[in-house]
Automatic annotation (TrEMBL):
Highest taxon, organism lineage: Archaea
Keyword Secreted: no
PANTHER family, alphabetized: ABC TRANSPORTER ATP-BINDING PROTEIN (PTHR42711), ABC TRANSPORTER, ATP-BINDING PROTEIN (PTHR42711:SF18)
Gene Ontology molecular function: ATP binding; ATP hydrolysis activity
Keyword terms: ATP-binding, Nucleotide-binding, Transport
PROSITE patterns to which the protein is assigned, alphabetical: ABC_TRANSPORTER_2
Name of protein: ABC-type multidrug transport system, ATPase component
């Protein structure tokens, strides 16, 4: 659905996006996670053919973003949810959506059918004749989702869809995104919200002008190793020496009678580790895994900037 190679964008000598390689499969929710200023929105704008890359190539829905003819087709095949969507506040919900449907040259019958479908999907059908001016931010976000879906795009770009929303409104928007996913849409989601990507995304890329790491949330958590805690009845130098000599143990940290070990694969390595501890005279009280959070990975890759 999306394939980018070396995608780069500069503004007056400043490199906002630097040599991004990315592949997003059809039907996938792919998250771009990074701090403010990381180039996420600029990446979306290039992939949606709103601005041209300075270097590199990208194909969206099999078409080249650098080709003027194909770029025009791409713009008609994607939907974009911006961080701060604007509407004609004096118009009703229905008339706002009809306006955008007309921009996509949709026939009246299809436009009316799609408007009803998405307003019902997002719980706004009963408000179709109400002016948008009185809508809360959460309601405006739901309406913005309906608007970016009205022309039945194959691919959706969502830029900080829950930014600034209260918890209830954010949950409503996340539920709406899940509903969209069930319709088979592909979604590229930009955010700096760690919880959001874990809840919604199949795969994520952590970005700070360039891609620093990519994979499923679980794989990224495992990318820096996994830690296990072993509680002993009594610690001894012999146990520490044996563990230091094991290839499967990346490091050992002693905390009283407990050991914190970093290993690559606890499922494979724990049996040998336990065997060697017992062989060295150790009595084990319990063994557990210390989970690595996505925040830990983010901090290591980005360098501590959460926003």
């Amino acid at each position: 659905m999306i394939e980018a190679r070396g995608l780069t964008r500069t503004f007056n000598g400043f490199t906002a996006v630097d040599s991004v390689d990315m592949r997003v499969g059809e039907g996938e929710i792919f998250g771009l996670l990074g701090p403010n200023g990381a180039g996420k929105t600029t990446t979306i704008r290039m992939l949606a053919c709103l601005i041209k890359p300075s270097k590199g190539t990208a194909y969206v829905c099999g078409m080249d973003v650098l080709s003027p003819d194909e770029a025009s087709k791409i713009r008609g095949m994607v939907g974009i949810l911006t961080e701060n969507p604007g509407f004609y506040d004096g118009l009703s919900v229905y008339k706002n959506l009809r306006f955008y449907a007309d921009l996509y040259h949709m026939g009246r019958q299809k436009a009316n059918r799609n408007i009803e479908h998405y307003l019902r999907l997002f719980g706004l059908w009963s408000l179709r004749n109400s002016p948008v001016a009185g809508f809360s931010r959460g309601m405006r976000q739901k309406l913005a989702l309906a608007r970016c879906l009205i022309h039945e795009p194959r691919l959706l770009f969502m830029d900080e869809p829950t930014s600034g929303l209260d918890p209830e409104s954010a949950r409503i928007v996340r539920d709406s995104i899940r509903s969209i996913r069930k319709e088979g849409r592909t979604i590229l989601l930009c955010t700096h919200n760690l919880d959001e990507v874990e809840r919604l995304c199949d795969r994520i890329a952590i970005m700070n002008r360039r891609i620093l790491g990519a994979g499923t949330p679980q794989r990224l958590k495992y990318s820096f190793g996994r830690k296990i805690i072993i509680r002993l009845e009594r610690m001894s130098d012999r146990i520490l020496s044996i563990l230091d000599g094991m290839d499967s143990v990346r490091f050992v940290e002693k905390e009283g009678n407990s050991l914190v070990l970093e290993v690559e694969d606890p499922e494979s390595d724990n049996a040998d580790i336990i065997y060697n501890i017992v062989k060295a005279g150790g009595r084990i009280q319990f063994v557990s895994e210390l989970g690595t959070s996505l925040e830990d990975v983010y901090m290591k890759l980005v360098g501590g900037r959460l926003a």
